[in-house]
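Interim report, section 4.2 (structural modelling).
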Amino acid sequence: MISLRLQIRLGVDTRIGHGKIQLLEEIDRTGSISAAARAVGMNYRRGWDLIDQMNRAFESPLVTGTTGGLGGAALTQLGRDIVAHYRAMEEKVSQAATSDLQAIEELLERARKA
Amino acid sequence: MISLRLQIRLGVDTRIGHGKIQLLEEIDRTGSISAAARAVGMNYRRGWDLIDQMNRAFESPLVTGTTGGLGGAALTQLGRDIVAHYRAMEEKVSQAATSDLQAIEELLERARKA
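Predicted structure of the assembly:
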């Protein structure tokens, strides 16, 4: 199975990829950082750290209610906009990449049979 | 500055991204694993390990002449095909991603000014 992962780099040290976007989506769905972290297989501390990294990179919160610990977390409009653009980009990119990704998969299958 | 990085995942544990592709290109250019590793800022051992990972994943070499250590390394046709498809994909993906990436950059700039 071949698949493609995307990572957005903001400046030198901030990266936004699959894991952070999934975490944001789960916060939107569950309203809780701990539930969101659990849903994506992270502990609370790791989830909190990733959100903190994003909030700092944008110098504006993507998630509010991060101080209480349990419950009450929500995406800001900024957080929602970033998730939406990431997913829209992923969809377009995935279509654009299909033919070359298939070609690489065929090379892989042929090489393994040879 | 915002930018996008791609990573191809083959199965569970093999990833091909920017670093490995650059290394392959430098091997093609220099004919030497040590020169190639140096050009991309790795030590020889790290360069060799990455090539070994790719050769194993494809069960066929992407690079030949990896045993001697100094000089005499070259890409196989498989290695060249993979680099070509990766770069072609990157070009298409980068066009497909432009508008959403710009939108995220504008969100970033606006958030930092707010």
